[in-house]
Amino acid sequence: MTAPELRPDATAVAMAVGEPLGSRILDGAAVVAPVAVPGLADIAVWSVTDEHGDHPMRLYVGVWPDGAVRTLSADQEAWAELVAVVGVHLSGPEEARAYVEAFLEVTRGAMVLVRPVTSLAELSWRPGSTDEEAAKESLLADPPDVAPAVQVTPSGFRVELTLVVDQRLQRNLFDVTPEGTITSSYRVLVDELPLPIVR
Known about the structure:
Structural class: alpha+beta
Largest sheet: 5 strands, antiparallel
Order of helices and strands: HHEEEEHHEHEEEE
Mean pLDDT: 92
Strand content: 25-35%
């Protein structure tokens, strides 16, 4: 349980996320909860979740040491500024991978599906168009290696993940320093797949 004095100010969180979620925070309908990010203080990142109504919502915010609150969803620059101020220490490759996965979840746009997959068996399919079904058949006929890979490098860690990004499957490469700085690149494996979009 997080001590009340460590919780971010509800009004500051509401102002950071804006409406309609802001009002839900102030009336107690939305839940504000700490998010564990490997290597990062456990009171720096918080989720704001409202599961009431027709459209459940979740955003992530960062809390700076001076109490300032900024939305981290869809803002990788804010993430970089937060970790630089709060401080990160990543001690090994698996912790670096978990840190990258947290970064992907926290900074994704609210209406963007981004999730790592370790096997093609994790993919769900829906009936697709002719082009989508052809893309699926091509993928399954010559499947790429989608398993995660992590290694130690002279500057820190290299994390390779296969991600579903809406209807696309891509391989992302993340170079991560022990202090949490991330640089990344990616290549598209297959686009326009008949994947269900679940927000």
